[in-house]
Amino acid sequence: MIQSLRGMNDMFSPDAERYEYFIETATTIAKRYGFTFFEAPILEETALFKRSVGESSDIVGKEMYQFIDKGENDVCLRPEGTAGVVRAFIQKKMDKQGGIHRFFYHGPMFRYERPQKGRLRQFHQFGIESFGVASVVEDATLIMMLVDILDALGIGYKLEINSLGDQNCMPDYRNKLVSFLDAHESEICEDCKRRKASNPIRVLDCKNSSCQALYAEAPKLMQNLCEGCDTDFQQLKSLLEDSKIDYEVNTHLVRGLDYYSKTAFEFVSDEIGAQSAIAGGGRYDRLVEFLDGKATPAVGFAMGIERLLELIKMPETKREGYYIGTMDDEGLPLIMKAAQVKRKSDKVTVEYKSKNFKNHLKGADKVNARFCAIIGENERNDGTIWIKDLELKEEKTIDLNTF
RNA sequence: GUGGGAUUAGCUCAGUUGGUUAGAGCACUGGUUUGUGGUGCCGGGGGUCGCGGGUUCGAAUCCCGUAUCCCACCCCA
Predict the structure, then answer these.
(1) In this model, does residue A170 exceed pLDDT 80?
(2) Are residues A291 and A338 in the same domain?
(3) Integer distance in angstroms from CA A7 to C1' B65?
(4) By percentage, how much of chain A surpasses pLDDT 70?
(5) Mean of the per-residue pLDDT values for chain A?
(6) Are A146 and A279 in contact, with CB atoms under 8 Å apart?
(7) Is residue A212 scored above 80 in pLDDT?
(8) A155 beta carbon < 7 A from strand B?
(9) Is A154 found in the same domain as A20?
C-alpha cells in the first residue's frame, strides 16, 4: 500500500470542516480590516528564502525541500509565506508605486522537520502582510485583528510582545551580548556556543537553567533600544492597553527569522503541547529593500492552522435540508425528480433503495436532515409526498407538484 | 538531527508463562408483516495482528531490521 509521506496529512471531515470554518472566519475579519486576498506560488527560487529568512536560520539551514528542477533551476517549496509576498510586491512594482498595500493569504508551507504534535512537514498557515505603514499603530492593529480572529473562534491564548530593535540599536546590542558570551564562554552550554556564532540573540531563550541564571546578568535588549524603538514600543503597549488587550512583555521572545525588527509578538496556547505558538509575527521594515525593492516599511503575522484546529469551538450543527426516499421501486423516478427540484435551494440526500417507513426515518435522522420526505404506494397513487419536520415533529402530505 | 514509548477489525482497545477457527464496545449492514426517527429486539459482514527477516514442532506474544505515529529535546506557525 502506498501511504502518504512522513509528516504530510490528509484532511477529511470533520477536521476539514474546521479548516474551512477557520479560513472563512479569518477571511471575513481580514477583509473588515481592509486586507485583500493574495495567492503566491508554492515553489520559488531557493535564493529568495536564503536572502529573506536568512542562512543562519534552521529553516534555511536544514529544513528546506530544495531541489534542482528540469530547467536546472535551484528551487524549493516555500517554508513560510512572507518571502513570496514580498517578492511579488516588488515584482509588481508596488514598492515604487508607494501607498499602503494590505494582503492576506493562506496555504501549505513545507519544512523538513521531525514531526510531532503540532509540527508537520506540510502544514498550513493563514498570514497577513501590510506594506507602507511605518507607524507602530499598524502593529497594534494587526494584533487587534489577531485577537478578533481568535475570539471569534473561541480560542484562548496568551499574548507576548517584545522589541527586537532596528539597524541602529540591534547591532550594538548584539556586539555587547557577544562580548558578554565571550567573557563567559566556559559557563554556557554547547547549544549556546553554537548560537553565539550563528544567531547570538537566540541564546536568550535557551531552556538550560544554568544558562538562564547566567543570562539574568546579561545586557538586556530592552535597555539598549535606541530612542525611536523605545518610543514605538511604549506606544504599542499603551495602544494595546487602550484596546483592553492583555499582553506580557517577554524580553526573551526572539523570532527565528532574520528579517524581523522592532515589534515581535507571539500568541501561545497551553493546551496543545510543546509546539505552543499558534501565531507569530512582527515588523520587517528592511526586508523589501533587502530583496532589491524600494525601502518600504512592513509588518505581518502568520497563524499555524493545524495547531488551531482542535482549539476551535465550532457552532452547533443544526438539522439541515431534506432526506427523500421511496417505499417501492416504482417511486424512484418520482423522488429523483423531487430531489432535482429541491436541490435548487436546499441540501438533499436521496436514498435510492426502497425501504419501509421506519427505516427511512432512521436514515433521515442519520444524515441529520431537517425534513424526511417519503413517497409510498398511497402517495404515489395520489400524486402526493409525505413530509415530516424532524425537529418540530410536524408532518403533512402535500401535492407533489408543490414540493 | 538526538533520546524514549507505541503500532491487533473502520474507530477505541482486550488478548494470561509462545499452544486449536484472535475477542469486546462503538460504527457499518440486513431483518423486525407498508406507516413514525434520534433511544427496542434479532442477525450479518469485516483482521495476511504495521511491514520484512529470524528463533521454534508452533509466534499477535521472543529476537533483529524497517516504516509510521506519539512524547521530549531542537526549532517554530
Answers:
(1) yes
(2) no
(3) 22
(4) 100
(5) 90
(6) yes
(7) no
(8) no
(9) yes
In this complex, the answer to whether residue A208 has its CB under 7 A from any atom of chain B, a nucleic strand, is: yes
Closest protein residue to B34 using CA and C1' atoms? Answer: A356
Distance A14 CA to B35 C1' (A): 35
The pair phi, psi for residue A85, each rounded to 5°, is -65, -45
* 3-class SS of residue A155: coil
In a domain, A147, yes or no: yes
Rounded to two decimals, the ipTM of the complex is: 0.84
A246 and A128 assigned to the same domain: yes
The count of structural domains within chain A is 3
Give yes or no for a contact between A96 and A289, defined as CB atoms under 8 angstroms apart: no
Specify whether A203 is located in the same domain as A71. no
Whether the CB of A3 is less than 7 Å away from nucleic strand B comes out as yes
Statement: the CB of A115 is under 7 Å from strand B: yes
Contact residues for A24 (Cβ-Cβ < 8 A; gap 6+): none
Provide the CA A203 to C1' B20 distance, Å, integer: 64
- A159 and A179 belong to one structural domain: no
The parent domain of residue A213 ranges over 170-224
Which of A309, A336, A366 marks a domain boundary? A309
pLDDT at A117: 86
Q: Residue A145 and residue A249: Cα distance in Å, rounded?
A: 19
